[in-house]
Amino acid sequence: MSSARELLSDGTARIARVFRNFVGHKASSMRDSAGILDDGADRFDGANRAAVRETGMSGPDNRPTGTGPNLASVPGVDELLRVRTLDNRRLRSDLSGLERRYGPFHLRLTDVSYFGPTSAGGPPVSGFRINGAVVDDAGRQVGRVERHISVKDGRIVVFNAHMRLEEGARGRGFSQAFTASMNDYYRRSGVDRIEIFAVQDGSVAWARAGFDFDRDPDRMKRTISSVREQAVAIRADCSPSDRALLDEVLSRFKGKDGYPTARELVELAGEDPQLGVKLMSGTSWHGVQRLS
Q: How far is CA 2 from the centre of its chain?
């Protein structure tokens, strides 16, 4: 009984650490990647709401399916960022072409809104958010998606803030079709990269989808810390040879070059063929996918 209590206590502490780290990440990413909300209270509340949502974020569906719908009729992101006024009604109309069928489900926009200037004298529009409900043919909501699009250092950046499907809606092709269509749209719009913060099941899925570690020094430091913490957590249950594999891959994080990729880690296999999956499934990490 005491060992069970210790296990529960340890698990609760680990979840709390991930949550605290993520709140810190979101507070900065709301500034860095998604623009600044109207006031300090909104920034604080927004960061915490996002943290709660993100801890359940799932990654893309990797099962084979057809490509998603063509979004050529939707005005490009670059065009939507050049406006001079925060006209959310016009933005909603411009993005209405995203309301399509993706695989077995439909996307219905629920909130589309611009971010204001990030500094005095800055551009009137620094980015915008897209919130959508995923609905089935009966009109029942089975999931949600949220994307933040902004300009950072002169480049257009997308932050995948949220994607969550009910268990029965997963693995049926929605997320792959949606991701394929949106990535084509982003490329046409001149988007430089897509950023994520992966946790739980999303940590494995995003690594398999080709996202790599964000090499921003602060973000990389947090990622490495999480990888090392998870390696310690699973080490006791590993064979001696698998422990040696973990030691070898962790040694590659020393210095500034030669880091393993997220895909390398998730595909790590030894006596336990799921060694890499166990490592990444307990890791929270900052990721990026370059589009340009």
A: 37
The DSSP symbol for 96 reads: G
Model confidence pLDDT, tens digit, residues 179-190: 999 999 999 999
Mean pLDDT of the chain: 82
225-263: per-residue pLDDT in tens? Answer: 999 999 999 999 999 999 999 999 999 999 777 899 999
Tally helices (H) and strands (E) across the chain: 10, 8
Domains, the chain: 34-195 (3.40.630), 215-290 (no CATH)
Of 195, 143, 186, nearest to 167 (Cα)?
A: 143
What is the SS3 assignment for 165?
strand
Six-digit token pair at 143?
A: 């999931």
Query: What does the alpha-carbon distance between residue 256 and residue 247 come to, in Å, rounded to a whole number?
Result: 18
pLDDT digits (tens, 9 = 90+) for 63-77: 434 489 999 999 999
- Smallest CA-to-CA distance from 173 within 221, 104, 251 is with 104
